[in-house]
Structures are given as C-alpha cells and as structure tokens.
Amino acid sequence: MPSIDTFAANISRYLGPEQVNLVRRAYYYAEQAHDGQRRRSGEHYVTHPLAVANILAEMHMDPQSLMAAMLHDVIEDTGIPKEAIVAQFGETVADLVDGVSKLTQMDFQSKAEAQAENFQKMAMAMARDLRVILVKLADRLHNMRTLDAMPHEKRRRIARETLEIYAPIANRLGMHNTFTELEDLGFRAMHPMRSKIIGHKVRQTRGNSRDLVAKIQEALTARLIREQLPCNIEGRQKHLYSIYRKMRGKRRSFKEIMDVYAFRIVVDTVDMCYRVLGAVHNLFKPIPGRFKDYIAIPKSNGYQSLHTVLFGLQGVPIEIQIRTHEMEEMASHGIAAHWLYKAGEETVSRNTHERARRWIKGVLELQQRAGNSLEFIENVKIDLFPDEVYVFTPKGRIMELPKGSTAVDFAYAVHTDVGNRCLGCRLNRRMASLDEPLQSGQTVEIITAPGAHPSPAWLDFVVTGKARTNIRHWLKQMECSEAVEFGKRLLDKALKDVSSRLDHIPAEQITLLLAEYQLADVDTLLRDIGLGHRTAYLVARRLIKANDETSLYQDSPLAISGTEGLVVNYARCCNPIPGDSIVGRLSAGKGMVIHLDSCRNITEPHAHAGADECIPLAWARDVVGEFSVSLRVELEHQRGLIAVLASAVTDADANVEKISMDERDGRTSAVLLAISVRDRVHLARVIKQLRVIKGVQHVTRVRA
Ligand code: MN
C-alpha cells in the first residue's frame, strides 16, 4: 500500500498541483477523523480510504471522486455530520460521501434473497451521481482484497453480496476488470476449496500447453507482420469464476472449457480490425457460426470487439478477439473510462451525469447504427437514470413503482383491498403522510382498517393507473349505492307527505312509470332521485296519480344523519354544522348540498333556483362525523399566540384544519381559524376556550 506521498506523486501525473492538494487535504481530514480506529488487520483505518482512492486513481478518476473516496467512511464511522464535509470540501464531494454511506447502510442481506437484480437496480436508483457507484465499487473491491481478516460468517455474507449485487453492477457498467476481480474474490470466499482446485488445474493446464500457445502466437504474429498489420497479440485467460459458472450452468467439463486457446489482438483502427480478421481467417480455418461482429452491433454495456473461433494446430479451437485500443479501454473500464481526467477540462465534474450521458450517448449511437437500440435502452439507460423507485414491503419483497409514487400507489400495487382499506403509512418505521413521494430503499408499511375507504383527495397525488382506476371505481360504486339509499329516503319522504308509502304502490304502477321514464329498474330511478336528476315530489305525484296540489313540505323535514356519504355535501359558503337550521338544494348529478337556511346562496333568488329544488331538512338526533366551521379571532398581536390558539382548540377536543392571518393593523390582528367540530354545543365550548385566552378580543363564526 502506497503512502500518501507516493499516492500524491502518482496522481500528479494527471492532476494539477492544486487538485493534488485538495485530495491531500481530504486524506488528512480522514486521517484525523478515523484517528484511533484500526482495521481488523491491525492497520490504521485511514489505509483503507487511501487504498480505495488509489483504485480510482488507477482509473484516472476526477479529483472529486478521489476526495470522496478518502472521506467515504467518515460520515458512517466517525459521526461527523454531512454539513461539516460540505463546509470543508463543498456540496458535491459531501453528496458523494453521503451517497456512498447510504449504500453502505443498505442491508441487502437481511431482505429476501433471489431478488438480486432488483437490488442492483435499487442501488443504482439510490445513487443520483454515478460516481457514488464507482466509489462504492472501489470500496468493495478493497474490502474484498482484504477479506481474509474477517471472521468466517461475515466473510461469506460480504462475498455473497459482492457476487449478487456489486459484481453484476460493475458488469452492467462495462467495467470488466473490476467485475472479474470482484467475482474471483467472491468465489474464493464463498467456495475456497472449489476455487483452489480450479485455480490449480488452470495453472497445470497452462503449463502443459505453454508450448502450443507459443507456437500459435508465433504463427499469428508472423502472418500479421507479413501482411503489414502492426498489432499487439496477447494470450487471454478466463477468470476462475466464469470457468466455474460454465461448468455448473452449461454442465461442461473442465477439459471442454479449458481446451480452448484464447488470444486478444489490439490494433489502431477499426479498419485494421477487419483486415486482421481476414488475415487470421486466411491462416486458420474459422469454425462456422462462431464469428460475432460486436463492432457493428455492440453489446448492451457498450462492449465492442470482433470475436471468431478458428481450427488451430492439431485441431484445437482458438478464440480470437480483435479490437482497437479505445475499445480495449472501454472493455476494461467501461463507464469509468469516461471519467478519465484530462487536464484543462474544468467542467468535468460540475455536471454530475454529463460523463454518464456521454457514455450512454456513445453507446446509443453505436446501437442505433446497428438498428438495435431497444435492448440497450432496456438494459442501461433505465438503470442509470431510473424512472422508477424501488421500495421494500415489510417482508422484504421489492416493489418497483414509477417515480413520484406514494404509499397509496404502493398499497394498490400490493392488492386492491389493501388500497381500499388504506388508512395511513409508515416509511422506514416512521409515520408519514399518504401523499409523501416514496424514495428508493425505503420500507413501506400500510396501515389498514376494516372500515377505512378511499378518499377523493387521493386522486390529487396518486401516479399509477392502477391506484387511479381503483379509487375512481370505488367512489363511483359508493356514490351509486349511497345515491340509491338517499333517493329512497327522499322518495319515501315525498310519498309520506301525500299520505302514502312506496310499498303501498301497486307493482304495475311502478312498471308503468319506469317504462315512461325509460329506466331499467327501481334502483336506477332511486339513484336518479338521490343524485338530483329527478325530483322526488314529481315522482311521488306520478306514482299516486294525485292531481290535487298537496303541498310537499307540510310535515316533518328529512333528517340528516351525517352518514349519507358522497351524495350529501356541506356547503363551503356557510359551513353548516349540527344544530344549525338547514335546507338542502338538489342539483342535477351532484346530489344534495346542505346550506344554512340563512345562507345568502339560498335566500337571494337565483334565476335558475326554483323553489322545488330546496328541501327543508333537520338534523337527526345522533349525527355522526366532524364538520368544518370557520372562526374569526381578533386579538392583540403578540408572539406565540398562534400556538396558544391552536392548543386551546385541541384542548376543547376539536381539530385545527387551517390557520391564516386575516389582517394586521398595528396592535391587533385577526386570525382565521378553520376547525372541525361535532355540533353547535361543541363549537360553543371551543369558542369559550378561545375567549378566555389573554389578548383575545372577539371570536365570531364566519358565515357567507
Ligand atoms: Mn469503506
């Protein structure tokens, strides 16, 4: 492990002195923060962040990534707050450190397994800046390199997580070198014996075939020199875990897999790639069907190369990869290759995703040229700039939802019944409001109750079609059954006023009326009445064929119990509450709206408001529910008064819905209080509580 001075000397090869100093400062900060802490190996803790920074420096990553690497365990392990890092090193570095800490805190293992792919996506979604992932991968790589110091159980846990989550992420990002090293280290920790045996056999086989490999390489080199194609030929080795995977997955023997000689030829230009291909096909016969042109049609992570397999000397297959230096760079480092720091590029890290976009754009163009952009978009773009959030159910299952989804969307995604009975939610075990947008990585728990039901207000914030459709459907159904119920009460009332009852009306009379109105059944008629499409009084007169002008409103008024549901609404202009004198106005399609009988909207004649639309009402004896009412409180202005007002309301067992300042002239203020109460008696109690507050001069109920 290099010292900070050696490290600084290394990075000064591609960074300016000022930037080197910034990175140094981050190192000293970390050294001090981790002072006294040691790694399990006994070394000073700071050797770890330095090693992580070194891995990134080998990829020539930008200074901010290196600083974040130095500081990556500071928030997590030393309790230094993010703000302190912001103050010292700026917002971007602090965000990177914070992002890495969040990924570290994710306990992938405690959740259900077999969801590895979703975990990978979740990790990506959590990292807004892709450099967070790159720092995390470097962190994981160093931890894997030093895994031997860990106790057995922990070693296996970390190794499994590496194989299931982090190695595949490296692969998605095209970082072949990181990917293969993570896999081999993970393999060694998970299956030490198997890894040892395969490693041993690989070395043995290579030893035995050394001569043959040399011969093939000589033949290739000679031919390419003769054709005047300058290039670099290297023998290529498969990494252990991929051999193991092939043996397991494809059930092939070790001999089958290893009996292949693999070479990589790196040249200067694309044109040369194809010329080299021609030359080697000329030298050895190609095996039909094994040629792949990944230059014309790159792999989904941007990988480009020509692949071919030849019948070699003594009939052994020879695998050949041919590519340019740039392609080689991309194949080894993938997306990290685009962070390669180049002096003078000051804008490098200012735009966090710029590099990633450039990478994506490059790959996208390649794919489009090949007429194959779909797979790429599926695999890469969605991962890097996800339109989804990934959250956990309490049992650890991962749910994928569109960005902006709320707990209500989540509830409906789990099951329609859960959505319909949803009452509240907990996000990461804390109570949260239902309209709060979910964040990737959160655990969402829905609180349900048998009597709970959807609220029309949910339609304002849900984003999934499933939630929207189900809420609408439920409301429609409720409205329908409530309208039938209410229509029946209205019709009964109207019939009673003319001394009759619905069950006294002969069936044929009803059938006749339905035919005349062209209605399917009685429920439809009742629903129409409940929704205000038809007037109960007229229907009643039709039914009893009464020709006399019996007045409809002579008897006891219809009683409102508060349980009528969506077909009965309380006017916002005058906010009637139980105890007030009220009237109802039926309006077509909306059901009935209840007003104070003194409300201006009722007393002032409107052109379209005929007398028959208004129905006298009374409150039932046992009204259910909470009713909104507005109060105007005039008081001497003093600090903290709003809080005193609110707590007086709460003390009287009522709820504050809204508080707003109405006006303020000099020493007195007027506060508008929207509260909910059970009835007039309750309201009187609230007003009494408010009046005794020192400084309060007037309390009045606001009516339109
Ligand atoms: Mn670490």
Question: Cofactors and ligands present?
Answer: manganese (II) ion
Please, what is the average pLDDT? 82
Query: What are the segments in which pLDDT stays under 50 over at least 5 consecutive residues?
Result: 110-114, 341-353, 370-383, 546-553
Broad structural category:
alpha+beta
Beta content = 15-25%
Could you tell me the number of beta strands?
20
Biggest sheet character:
6 strands, mixed
Terminal CA distance? 79 Å
Radius of gyration: 38 Å
Give a verbal description of the structure:
The structure is a single chain. With 704 residues, the protein is α+β, with helices and mostly antiparallel strands. The strands form five sheets. Strands 1, 2, 3, 4, 5 and 6 form a six-stranded mixed sheet that branches. Strands 12-16-14-15-13 form a five-stranded mixed sheet, with helices on one face. Strands 18-19-17-20 form a four-stranded antiparallel sheet, with helices on one face. Strand 18 and strand 19 (668-677) form a beta hairpin. The N and C termini lie far apart (79 Å). Residues 110-114, 341-353, 370-383 and 546-553 have low confidence and may be disordered. Manganese (II) ion is lined by residues 48, 72-73, 139.
